[in-house]
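ok so dumb question maybe but i'm new to this and my supervisor (M.) told me to 'just get the structure for GyrI-like small molecule binding domain-containing protein' and walked off. so i did the thing. is this what she meant?? sequence i used:
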Amino acid sequence: MKYEWRKNEKELYLPKEKPELVQVPKQKFFMIQGEGNPNHEDFSERVRALYSMAYSVRMMPKNGFTPDGYYEYTVYPLEGLWDLSEKGRTLDKLDKEELLYTIMIRQPDFVDENVFQKAYGIAYNKKKYPLLREVTFGEIQDGLCVQMLHKGSYDDEPESFEQMIHFIKENELERTTLVHREIYLSNVNKTEPEKLKTALRYMVKKIE
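this is what came out, is it supposed to look like this??
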């Protein structure tokens, strides 16, 4: 039976359209860093490299290698950690050229360094994307977070962030970092901007 993250991990990936608290455990990711406007081709190339790696793991049994503990699953959605350069933080308005990001795709628990290296070999032999060499493997634990579902254009996210900030103040919380996470639940190439679904997440702690 195929493991479906949409069914088995609704709390983490299908939040409500209002802020809520969630505890996020340690998770494994394939990651790649970048900077600048995500509408540029460089961002798309990094996304392609990530998906090439992710599907190399998913299809490994058909390529003659079955990792220990492997099970059928649906590939996890693209996620991103977003920050601004020092210059970007001083500006009154968002300049997308000053964005710093790490985009990533979560991996099942059976993935380890050996599986990561195997995936690189499979991906590189299939499509020799130059950016594959920049993909890394590691674990991240967000811990206590405030998250909500944002419906609509990415440019309208500040409206949802305002709700989250209000929730944080009301519940005697504070952000532990200015970096925020976005989880992309829609295919941006096949979905109208007003129908896009994105999970937004701030990492927080209780004020002592």
